[in-house]
Design goal:
Blueprint lengths: L16 E4 L15 E4 L3 H10 L1 E5 L5 E5 L1 H12 E3 L5 H7 L4 H8 L2 H14 L6 H9 L1
Antiparallel strand pairs: 1-2, 2-5, 3-4
Helix pairs in contact: 1-2, 2-5
Length: about 140
């Protein structure tokens, strides 16, 4: 019975954070790259994000079928995982001339940096497969 206790809610590290340097362009006063902090999330949180990126569209014979926008899903997943910097901070958004966390992230990072961050978020959250494969699974 003692092995079962490992699965009790208080025992696994569900909400873990990890520091990760996304870009050498963001430096502290000493000139060192500032690491971002990303967190893990539960499947319930992931499911909510997936639902928010899914729309009903007309399919064959006029039936409505769910369709997940993979770019929207990935952006929402990354934003939900970033703990630091605070992407919801109005002052930070203003400094880039954008409104919204997803738009901020896409404006402040270069394409390769965004891809690296997205890959790290997926790895930290236990996704071993490509995001497109996951979206296909969600559709089925």
């Amino acid at each position: 019975m003692s092995e079962l206790s490992a699965f009790f809610a208080q025992n696994p590290g569900v909400d873990m954070t990890e520091a990760f340097v996304v870009s050498d362009r963001f430096k502290d006063k000493q000139g060192h790259p500032v690491p971002w902090k990303i967190r893990t999330m539960t499947e319930a949180q992931n499911e909510e994000i997936r639902r928010s990126a899914t729309r009903l569209v007309k399919g064959k014979n006029g039936a409505k079928v769910p369709e997940t926008n993979s770019e929207d899903y990935l952006a929402k997943l990354v934003v939900a995982s970033v703990v630091f910097p605070d992407l919801k901070n109005a002052e930070l958004q203003q400094s880039y001339g954008v409104i919204g966390s997803e738009q901020l992230l896409k404006t402040m990072l270069l394409s390769g940096e965004y891809a690296t961050l997205a890959q790290k978020v997926q790895t930290v959250n236990g996704f071993d497969r490509d995001i497109n494969e996951l979206v296909e699974d969600v559709k089925n």
